[in-house]
């Protein structure tokens, strides 16, 4: 974290603790906080745009595969289904996670940008691990010991729900981006750093219409 950013975050803390006597000049601290939140939202918006292509490929693979697993694994998984699950796993593993959205840097974000980064991390982690574990469960059922096969069948619902939850999180990003943009002053405050047209385009890409999986997950743990 840079010295300038540390100082800005300190000002934010002072603003929050003003009533306890941490400095005077709360209006200046408030303006610094707004500026920092806007900078973070710009960085997150650019990161979302950078990740967009890889996310779209993951979503396409997930949507094609989801009906095969939404209600649990069949008694026998056909080779074509295995191939589709493998493709979804590969796409989830190759989703681009730009620096502002990575866990280490995201902890320094402020305002709406921090929440959006958290949603993206939730999507990435749940999708990658969910598809990978579904594939591992199929292998255990097909080639493992009877005990391993029973364990896999008993727990595969967790992995299926993880994939569903991943895309639910992804689908919330667009509306959070638009809400944060409005809250922080909209086009008048951001200018060319983050145009309203860019925000609207990202909101369409990271939306329920684009990213939610259908049908709703139909399998539960132990079923």
What would your notes on this structure say?
The model is unreliable at 1-25 (pLDDT under 50). It is elongated, with a radius of gyration of 21 Å. The protein is built from nine helices and no strands. It has one domain. It has 223 residues and is an all-alpha fold. Helix 1 packs across helix 2 (26-69) and helix 2 (26-69) packs parallel to helix 8 (196-205). The protein has helices spanning 3-16, 26-69, 79-93, 103-106, 111-143, 146-183, 186-190, 196-205, 208-211. The longest helix is centred in the N-terminal third of the chain and has 44 residues, at 26-69.
DSSP summary, beta strand count:
0
CA gyration radius, whole angstroms: 21 Å
Number of domains: 1
pLDDT below 50 for ≥5 consecutive residues: which ranges? 1-25
Largest sheet: none
**Strand residues, percent:** under 5%
Provide the helix percentage: over 70%
Shape type: elongated
Order of helices and strands: HHHHHHHHH
- Total helical elements: 9
Mean pLDDT: 89
- Helix- and strand-based class? mainly alpha
End-to-end CA span? 48 Å
Provide the descriptors you would attach to this structure in a database record.
223 residues, mainly alpha, 9 helices, elongated
Architecture blueprint of SSEs:
Elements: H1 3-16, H2 26-69, H3 79-93, H4 103-106, H5 111-143, H6 146-183, H7 186-190, H8 196-205, H9 208-211
How would you concisely characterize the structure shown here?
75% of the residues lie in helices and 0% in strands. With 223 residues, the protein is mainly alpha-helical.
């Amino acid at each position: 974290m840079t010295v300038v950013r540390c100082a800005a975050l300190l000002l934010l803390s002072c603003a929050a603790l003003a009533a306890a006597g941490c400095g005077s000049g709360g209006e200046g601290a408030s303006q610094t906080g707004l500026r920092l939140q806007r900078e973070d939202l710009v960085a997150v918006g650019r990161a979302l745009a950078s990740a967009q292509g890889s996310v779209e490929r993951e979503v396409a693979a997930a949507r094609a595969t989801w009906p095969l697993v939404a209600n649990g694994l069949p008694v026998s998984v056909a080779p074509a289904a295995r191939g589709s699950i493998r493709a979804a796993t590969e796409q989830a593993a190759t989703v681009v996670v730009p620096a502002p959205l990575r866990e280490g840097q995201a902890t320094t974000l402020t305002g709406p940008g921090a929440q959006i980064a958290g949603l993206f991390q939730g999507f990435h982690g749940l999708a990658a691990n969910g598809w990978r574990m579904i594939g591992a469960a199929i292998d255990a059922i097909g080639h493992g010991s009877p005990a391993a096969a029973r364990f896999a069948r008993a727990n595969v619902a967790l992995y299926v729900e993880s994939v569903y939850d991943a895309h639910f999180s992804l689908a919330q990003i667009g509306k959070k981006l638009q809400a944060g943009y409005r809250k922080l002053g909209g086009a008048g405050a951001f200018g060319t750093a983050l145009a309203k047209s860019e925000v609207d385009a990202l909101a369409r890409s990271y939306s329920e219409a684009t990213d939610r999986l259908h049908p709703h997950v139909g399998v539960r743990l132990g079923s």
